[in-house]
Each structure stands twice: as C-alpha cells, then as structure tokens.
What does this fold into?
Amino acid sequence: MRSVISILDLSAEEINQLIATAKDIIAHPENYWDKCAHKKLATLFYEPSTRTRLSFEAAMLELGGSVLGFSEASSSSASKGESVADTSKILSCYADIIAMRHPQEGAPYVASRNATIPVINAGDGSHNHPTQTLADMLTISRELGRLENLTIGLCGDLKYGRTVHSLIEAMSRCGNIRFVLIAPKELKIPSFIRYNVLEKYHIPYTEVESLEEAMPQLDVLYMTRIQRERFDDPWEYERLKDTYILDTKKMELAKERMCVLHPLPRVNEISVQVDADPRAAYFRQALNGKYMRMALILKLLEEAKANPIREEIDTTDLEYDRVCTNPKCISRTEQELPQLFRCTDKAADIHRCIYCEQRA
Amino acid sequence: MRSVISILDLSAEEINQLIATAKDIIAHPENYWDKCAHKKLATLFYEPSTRTRLSFEAAMLELGGSVLGFSEASSSSASKGESVADTSKILSCYADIIAMRHPQEGAPYVASRNATIPVINAGDGSHNHPTQTLADMLTISRELGRLENLTIGLCGDLKYGRTVHSLIEAMSRCGNIRFVLIAPKELKIPSFIRYNVLEKYHIPYTEVESLEEAMPQLDVLYMTRIQRERFDDPWEYERLKDTYILDTKKMELAKERMCVLHPLPRVNEISVQVDADPRAAYFRQALNGKYMRMALILKLLEEAKANPIREEIDTTDLEYDRVCTNPKCISRTEQELPQLFRCTDKAADIHRCIYCEQRA
Amino acid sequence: MRSVISILDLSAEEINQLIATAKDIIAHPENYWDKCAHKKLATLFYEPSTRTRLSFEAAMLELGGSVLGFSEASSSSASKGESVADTSKILSCYADIIAMRHPQEGAPYVASRNATIPVINAGDGSHNHPTQTLADMLTISRELGRLENLTIGLCGDLKYGRTVHSLIEAMSRCGNIRFVLIAPKELKIPSFIRYNVLEKYHIPYTEVESLEEAMPQLDVLYMTRIQRERFDDPWEYERLKDTYILDTKKMELAKERMCVLHPLPRVNEISVQVDADPRAAYFRQALNGKYMRMALILKLLEEAKANPIREEIDTTDLEYDRVCTNPKCISRTEQELPQLFRCTDKAADIHRCIYCEQRA
It folds into this structure.
C-alpha cells in the first residue's frame, strides 16, 4: 500500500501509465462506472478548496464509489484538538482512501504514516499539490500531443506557488524541456527548486521579468496569481501587477499552437476575454484534473488490494537532533510527533525536515 | 439545453406536464429509481438554505443520481474571489446539472450563460425562486384538485417575498384566478408585479390589511413571514405583527375546504396548534417540493441529452449604455460582466437589467 | 416505529441481538451491501462532531444507502430560527431515518415526537449518546469475549461525561459487573447515576482518586478527558491533570488481558506511546462504532417497515405544572413546546423533565 504526497512519489513511467488510464477513461467512461463500487473516499479538507474537493468527489462518484468527509476545519474534530494522526487512524475505519488538504506543511505525510489506507495529498500549505501536476501534465499531453521538446513559461508567483514547484519537478524528468521563469524579483523561484532540480539535472532555464518578452517562444504558458500580500512595497505591486495579467493583446504575441494553463481559481490575472481563445486550456485542465484523479484513485486502491501493508520508511539515516523552524510545519503542533531530519545533499551538507522539507 | 431561472422560463403547459410527472413519481416511485444513474447534481449554495438544499439532494438521490457541492460561501472558491461564471464553467466538468442559491440577484442567470449543463435557480436574493412555485402549484393541485377558479390570499411580506411574486406570475396564467393581497402598507406588492402582471393581464385583486377579514373567501392562504427589519418604525411592527399570525381562532373563519401554504421555515407566523388542522398543507408542500424538483431535474436532463447546445439569448435589442443601481445585482461584483438592459415595455419606456430585472 | 434516544430504549436482549448482527456484518460484509438500497439517512448535526457523523455516514453507505444533511448549525435552517420539531417534520419528507446531534438536551427526543421516521440520538449536550455505548459494548465483547463478570474502571470527568453515564446504565444490566470510579472530587459521578442506577440495582462500586491505585484490578479502563473549564480552581486542575493521563508506565500496572477504551477524540489524556500496546482498543472501538450503527439503522428501518406508526407516549401521569431550570434543556427555546414532567421515583418524590431528565 502506497500514498502519494509529492509528485516525486510517482516515477515518470507511472505518470505515463496514469495518463494512459485517464485517456482510456475519457474514451470509455462506462467501463469505469463500477470500478470503485462499495469503496469510499474520505475528503478531509482542513481548509476550503471547492474546486479540488469537488474534483476528487466527482472522480470517485464517476468510478461508482461514494464520498464522505468535511470541507473545513471548523466542521472537523480538529476544532476539538484531535491530531492529524488520530483522525487518519479513525478515518481508516470509515473509508478506503483519503484525499487530504491541510494548511500545515507535512500534514498529509503524517496522515500517510498513520492511516491504514492510501492517502493522497490534495495540497499542504505552499509545499506540495501532486494531483494538480497530474492535471497539468495530462493537459499538456492532450493539447500539444507530447510531453517532450517543450519550452514552458511559468509566470507570476514562482516563490510560493506549490503548483509551479511540482510542475518543474515533474517535467524535468521528461526529455528536452526548457523553462522560462517569468516573475518579479520578489517572487523568483526558490533555491531548493533552483539547485535541487534545475541545476542538479542540468535543465536549461532563463529568468525574465516580462511576460511579453517571453511569450513568442512558449509552447506552454503556466499562469499563477500574484498576491499583493507577497510584496514588501505596495507600490512595487502596483507597478508590476498589470505586467503579469494575460490579455488578448499579449496572446497575439504567442505561437499559433501553444496552450495557456492556470491552476484556478483565477481572480483577474487572466482577462475573461482570453477564455474564447482556443489556446486557453485552463477549463479543460480542470476537466483533466478529474480524470487524472480517477486514474490515481484506481491505481492506489489496486495497489492497496494487492498489498494492504503500509510501506515502511527507511529509518536508518534519520536525524533526531534538529528542530524545524518552519512555522507552518505540522511538527509544530502535532501531538508527540518527533522532529525528524534527513540529509538530502551530503556534498552541500543540506538537511531537510522530513515533514515539510524545509532546510535545517 | 435549457436552464430554469424564473418560473416564466416554463410555459403553463410545461408546468402541467411537470405536475403530471410528479404525480406519476408519487404513484410509482420505483419506476424512477434509476432514471439518473451515473448523473450528478451540483448544489452550489452561496448562502445556507437547508430545506431547499436537502430537497434538491433528496430529489436527485431518489432518481438514483448522486450529489456534490457546498452549503455556504465560506466553503467555496467564492471566498477566494472566483467569479460565478468561472465556478459554473468548472462545475460543468464535475456534474450534469446545477442547483444554485445565491444572495445576489441574477447570479444563477450568469451561471446559466456560462455553464455547459442546465442550471436551476434555487433562490437569488429577493428575485426568483421557481422551484418553490412548482412546489406550491403541485400542492394546490393535490389539495384542491384544480389550479383554476381559485381565490388565493397572499399574506405577510408581499414586497420582498420572492415566493409570492413567482406564485402570482405563475398562477396568473391559470384560468379565473383572483388574488387577495393581505399586507401592512409597508409591505405591499411592488409595482413590477402590480403593473407587469396583475394589471397587464387583467387579474382581479383586492388589497386588505386584515387577515381576519380576508379569511372567509379564500381557497388558498399563502402565509409568509414579516421581519422586524422591514419596518422603519418599530412600533408599527409591534402594532401589526399579531394581526398576521395564523392561529386556530382565525382558522375557524376559513372555508371547510381550503389549504394553508407556507414556504417554510416558519418562525412564529403560524401557531404550532394549526399544524393539526387538516387544511394545514405546509408540511405536505415540503414533500411536494421534492417531487417537483425530481420532475424538473428529469426534464432538464432529458432536454440536455436531446440537445446539448446551450440556448443562445437574443442579443438584438440589448442596451449597453445603462448601469444597474441595485446593490444586490450580480453585475456589481462579477468580473468583467457587461451591464446589459432590455426594454420590457415600450409604451411605458421601461428598461430592466437583464440580470436582476430591476428597472433602470 | 421506534426511535433510540437513550441506551435504555433498548433492552439488554436487544443490545445482544445488535451485537450479534454487528459480528455477522464483520464476518460477511458483502451480505449487507444492498440492505438499505434506496434508503436515505439524514445526519442533522447542530454542532460539529466529525467522528460520530462520519461513522454514521460510513455505516449507511456500507449498507448501500445514501446520506444527506448538515454538519453544523450555521448551515442549517436553525440559523433562521426553525424549530427542531419543524425540521424533523420536513426531514421526514426527505429521508428514511435521522441521526441527530444537538447541543441542547432533549432535542433528539423532541425530534422523535415529531418525525414520521426513526430518530437516533447522536449526542445531546451532556445527556445521552446511546450509539457510543453500543460501540463500547461491542468492543468489550470482542476484546474480552464477554459482557459479564467484569471490573470496569471509569476515569476522568464522570460528572459531565455522557458516555460514562450511558455505559453505567447499560452495563448495570449485565451480570456481575463492578465499577471503579476514578475521578477528582470536582468531577465525581452525579447523583442521578449514583442513586437511580448504582444504588437502586445494588451494583458494587468503589470511588478512588488515583488511576494508578485502580489499575491492577481492571478488566476495562474507560478513559475520558478532563477539561480545564470544569474546575473552579485552576491550580487544582494543574495539580490533578497528570494523574489522569494514561501512559506506558501506568499500563505496566494493568492486567495482561484487559482493554483501554476512549470515546475519542483524545487530546493528551492518553499518551501516543500507549497506542502500540495491544490492550489499547480505542481505535478498534471507533471501527466497532460503525458496525453497531449499521446494526441499529437496520433494526430501526425494519421495525419502521413492519409498523410505520410512531409509538405513542404514555400521557396519563404527565405533570404540566413545573418548569425546567436546566439552561441547556430544549424546552427553553423550542417554539410552543409544553413543559412536561414525570414522577420517576414516588418514594423519594423525584420528578424529572421528560426532555432533559433534569430533576425538578
């Protein structure tokens, strides 16, 4: 039995299989109507996220399963102080698979170490959101017919955007990918992506501040929202915000065959007028998210059936003598959870918290 | 493919067919157990309304379908600023039909212009609530055996009560209907109902302040709640409130064969002691609401199957140069939504917002 | 048709039958997959309780039924002032059985007197929680192989803990039971349990302040949480709290064959390290709760099918001239609900409110 907490929990080969399954579901939905009969998905959403939650629920229902859960922490036992570990153990009595959204980084990982059923991370803080990346990859594959030989522009908040980080990690394993990182200097890609992924695997990338400048070379444009709160200087926000709004005028600069993605919800970072452009793929991306979640639920339930024992983690090189300083890490609040670190780069002497992956 | 935003989206003939379907469901529920197998209803409730939401959910479940959605805005993407249009597009990926409740007038209409699946208005501000009217009409039909030749008393808040407005619109198309409008002067029927419906179609009506006076002539008494907040003068409220409370003593003045309706929830405008009176039909009305919602869901899904293309609106006579002043109109907040008006009465030069129908 | 508001609504014989049914479900779950096809459970939770709600929902889903409802009062018509009686009548139109959680004592009883479908009390204030007791009894039966000849330790808040009260009432009917009541003096067992159950039925019990002292003799240890708010003197709380925390050291004092129960959620009253002890039965208890709820739903639906008429209450000896002083009693807020008392002990001249059972 296995859980998916990070996109890297799935090999490139496994992602290709999930994409193939999703395409088969699209072609023959009726073949999957009873695949999860008598199975239950628990949607444990400690913060609201309608789109992601309903996508998981629709996925399970279209597989013939059913759904239970909660959509915000105030409706949950968490308001009575129950730990993520306990909730996961109890939910293992009520459901066959869990999709968990949590504002604290590492919470779904803690759940996966305590549940006796598979756990899917449906977003934890600004850490991971693997099923969004699966949706992104199916969309690129369906829109452009390939996952290799692509110039991918990532625009907006590249610092805190978990979907951007996961997409870089996943696409870096595909062949001949080049990234164009389009962001104001306040929101540039963080060092763990820069050094642990891009530099480490020799992925070519350029960094620019202007969306217009980047536009002509892109096969994929991945838009994200820039939040005012991210800026120290509000005038800097005012100066920049329009630069990162995609409108029909900027679309004129783009290739004829390319696609625009957005994890949604958007506020105003893509003009509504762009929606009519055939290259605007973000609503199809939402649909693709449902199909990839169906494929993932199927895969994890099949694995759990074949091998109901939880995969053990390798405890040999864990380090017990450090304390995580990330205020959003689950280890800050979870009852009796030991602080655990692991050396992720011996040459550079980098140690990371096993829950939130923040550097010690 | 068609949506139902106002009761007038359904012809009198179509309403009769829905009533016939509902009566067939009541007689043979088992014939409908699988009618919506593999279909999903999205209940998008931007404000709580337990009774209406659960009525829709029960309706879909009794048709063999399933349900997903949210029950208040704080659990939805709306709290992140997502537009109604975007939510409708995304939900079209997850469900087969939408029931939307929204505090802003015109929101379900905007949804219906963006969704690729049918939308049912489950109440928008004090604007429309068509499925309540369907429940009312089935109840009158079942209680009295007819929808013609009726004296209908409407009591309470006739100014803001959307269920009252919809019922007048719908019943005015039936034969030989007479209304008795029972309300304090602060809460009299608004002019758009008075002139656009009652006067226009020459429907006889009288206006009285006293429920006791009206009681003996009524075939139907439709009760609504009077809210303290509606009065400028709190003493006026205190003076009047008891006058509009229905109790067993007032019931003694009524015909032996008549029925009392109420959209529920009631607070204290009908004494609990009236519940035992066989003429008290308001709980049966709640049950009838479920059956009419079943009939409507069936009808709209069948139409969508036969013709999956969304009906286009007639754009020839739209007016683009006016601004809606209704603070509750969806056009006040929805991203990039154009202000649109239409002339509804050329003789009187009346122009109305196409979203909330408020006069320019 | 019958409802279950208190554990005493079920005879000892009926509880044994429910335990037998639950064990058969555990052995042959597939035999029950369609038992509640086309049936709907309404979960009416006026305050959040994730574990109980999801346990009921999982129970109904595993019987092939479906679920609708609300998970907190703000999403319900209660926020518009609808009475429990009215909500129960309306929900009877939408569902086949109700599970109700309510902060006010007696609310599920009021529901059961107005609904035309069975009502299960899922917890009302600090009054009753019968399905928790059913879970406790199945757990004792499965863990120890018997429900007789037991020394049962009850530890923590015995004054307000409704699960403790119900368990004493239920186990007192089994043969040769002895209780050890482990609590600080502020939180001792209330007089209605002491005199109406323990003394009345001559059940042997001892009262101690020390968990360590009690430990060696126990076959069952039932842990509950001690809340700071219950103490007049905060220093008294600080002095005592650790005494009532179960840890591995205290477990060393216990019998080799015994079991630890807890209604969950726990906060810190049981150390996480105890979880690995095979005698820690509290997570299996959560699973057992689901099976007992399945058995109870089945039983009540079968009874309702055989006899759809609501059992009438005996009104001959009701007393109309007293007023309930319990601020949490449903009779304090419910519209037009008559105050009703009944003499429960003629010798001692004790009269109790029929809703919350508080003494006049």
Summary: The longest strand of chain C covers residues 40-45.
